[in-house]
Specification:
five-stranded mixed sheet; Nucleotidyltransferase, domain 5; Arc Repressor Mutant, subunit A; about 375 residues; globular; single chain; alpha/beta
Amino acid sequence: MLSDSGKELAKEVLVHGPITRTELGSRLRLSPASLTRLSKPLLDAGFLVELDEAPGPAPGRPARPLDIRPGMGRFLGVKLTGDVAHGVVTDLRAGVTGQLQRHLTSREPEAVAKLIAGVAHDLGVVPPARGGAPAPALFGVGICLGGMVRRARQVVRAPFLGWQGVPLADLVEEASGLPAVVANDVVALSAAHHWFGLAKGETDFAVITTGAGVGYGLVTRGRVIDTAEAGIGLAGHLPLDDNGPACPEGWQHRGCAMSILASGPMVARAERELGRKVDYDQLLTLAVAGEAVAAQIVGDAARALGRLIALAANLTLRPLVVLGGEGMGLWDVAAPQIRAAAESWRQAEAEPLRIMVDATGFVSWARGAAALAIQESVGRLG
C-alpha cells in the first residue's frame, strides 16, 4: 500500500491536476527526490500520467505536468430517498458518464442493497460473466442518504427509510462484490463540491440544501466536518421567523427552516390556502405568474433562505455558501429576494457574500456519493 505521503500526492494531482512537479512539491513541501520516489509507483500503475512538455518556471527547462487518467476506473454513486434510488456512474474526477433511477420495491435493507447492486449492473459497469465483453472497471460504490451514519459503514438512523442500526456498507458489498462506503447526504455533497465541484480549491465554506428537508454542511481548513451530529437535522430547526408556521415535525416552535423552506410543508400550506392539489414545481410557477397565495409562500421561503445563508456566513466567519438540493427551483424564481434578504443580515464592513448554486438536483446528491467512493479509493491505492 502507498504511504500517507503517497496518498496525499495522489489526492493533490486528482484534485488540482494537471500540475507541475514544482507546484506539487511546493504544495506538499517535498523535495524533488522525494517527489520522484513517491510518484514512481503511481506512474508505473498508470494512475498518474506525464503530459506533453510545457514551458517551465526557468528558461530552457520545460516541465511535464502530472495528471491522472480519469477514465481508468469508474465509480457508482447512489442517493437513497424513502422511495427511489438515484444512481450515477462517474469517472475518477466525479464526471457523470451515466445515470438512472429505480423505485424501491421494498425498504428492507437487504432488498435495497440488492437493488443498488442491480443499478450497477444496469448501468453496465459490473464486470460481465465469464466470456462476456469487457466492461470498464468499477472501483467502488458510494451511497448517501438523509440520516446519521457511523464510520462510513452503518446507518444509525434514516427516518425516510425507517431504518435504525443498518450495516448498509456490508450489505451492499455482499450483494455487489464491490467496496462500499456510506455517508449522510449533505456530508457527501460537501465533499463533492470541495474536491470536484463549485468550491474546488476553497478551504472554507458552508453548504445549505433544500428539498424534502433542510441540510447544512461545513468545510473548514480544507476538511469536511463529519461528526456524530451530522444527519440529526439540527439546521432544519433553526428559527427563521417567530411568526412562521408550526414545526412540521411536532417540535414546540414556529418558523423553523423546515416549516418554511422544505418542499413538503410549502406544498401543504399552498394546498390548504388554495383549496386544491399542487406540487412544488406548480407552486413555483404560480408564484411567478403572480398568484397571491403562491407568491406569499415563495416570498416567505426566499426571505427565510436568505436569512439562513447570512446566518451560515456570519457564524462561520466565511462568506462563501454553496446552495444545493432538489429544492433549488426556489433560487430560479426568487434569486433577487434571496440575495436581498441575505445581505440585509450582513454588516457593511463584512466581506461580500459569495453564493454558488448547484441546480442539478438528485444528480448532485448521487455524484456526492460517488465522490466519497473516489476519496475512499485513494486510501486503498496499492
